[in-house]
Amino acid sequence: MNSKNDTFRGASQYVLDQELAKIVNISIALEMPLLLKGEPGTGKTMLAHAIAENLNMPLIVLNVKSSMKLVEALYQYDTLTRLNDSRFGDSSRNVSRIEDYIKMGKIGQAFTSDVKSVLLIDEIDKADTDFQDDMLDILDQMEFDIIEIDKTIRAKNRPVFIITSNAKKDLSDPFLGRCNFHHIAFPDPKMMRKIIKVHFPAIDTGLMENAITAFYRLRDLNGVEKQPATRELINWIRALKHDPDFKPKTLQKGELPFLGVLFKKSGDYQQAVNITNRRRLF
Length: 282
Fold this sequence. Notes:
By secondary structure, the chain is α/β, with parallel strands linked by helices. The chain has 2 domains: about 5-185, 3-Layer(aba) Sandwich (Rossmann fold), CATH 3.40.50; about 190-275. Helices cover about 45% and strands about 15% of the residues. It is built from 13 helices and 9 strands. The chain has helices at about 20-30, 45-55, 70-75, 80-90, 105-110, 130-140, 175, 190-200, 205-220, 230-240, 250, 260, 265-275, and strands at about 35, 60-65, 75, 100-105, 120, 145, 150-155, 160-165, 180-185. The protein has a 5-stranded parallel β-sheet, sandwiched between helices. Strands 3-4 form a two-stranded antiparallel sheet. Strands 6-7 form a two-stranded antiparallel sheet. A hairpin with a 4-residue loop joins strand 6 and strand 7 (about 150-155). It is elongated, with a radius of gyration of 23 Å.
């Protein structure tokens, strides 16, 4: 099992439930990737930051894009710079040494790091199936080849792997079979109160309760394309606290300022404005 120094216990800005703590620590102990699913704004990405903070490890983030090839996450061969160096001859690099033009990608950085790191592979569901499965082969073997220089890169330290998915696309069965899994549900009001108190320790109870009540009712509006998430609520409370003319009781009357902090889509914003203008939210 992992040592006490490798036991995740939460972080200063992350509220951790017991079940999530257990699956994080068992994944670290078994050296298995942890796949986190859940809607945007449930804290999947922030969990990796919290683990890195709590375990005092560097965090390396691979933001997956739909067009990304696996080799880009491993390394890049900078052919353009080498060509320019060979043409103009004013570089300190030796153009005959291809290795000087190899730059590590995010997975490569994690493998070559002198210290154990947390590697966050964010939004893996954007990648195609081949990317997903081939990536896990690399993570299993803890090595990859740089074909341009016929060199194998072996991991100095096995990173802590956190993989996130917004569940927009199904992941392959082989991929799922090689990961531990946890679904992070959207916080209920009780958990949300704990989160808000972490960010605003001295918050007025009336402001917190009225803001949370209004927030969940706004999330329940029909036809909303992008529901406001926890970060929007935190920013909304920050905006309310910053307004010297704001009074918490105005929320009870259905007067909800700064709706643009909560809703980022034009249609969602207009719907929320229309509802609140008619005082139909409460």
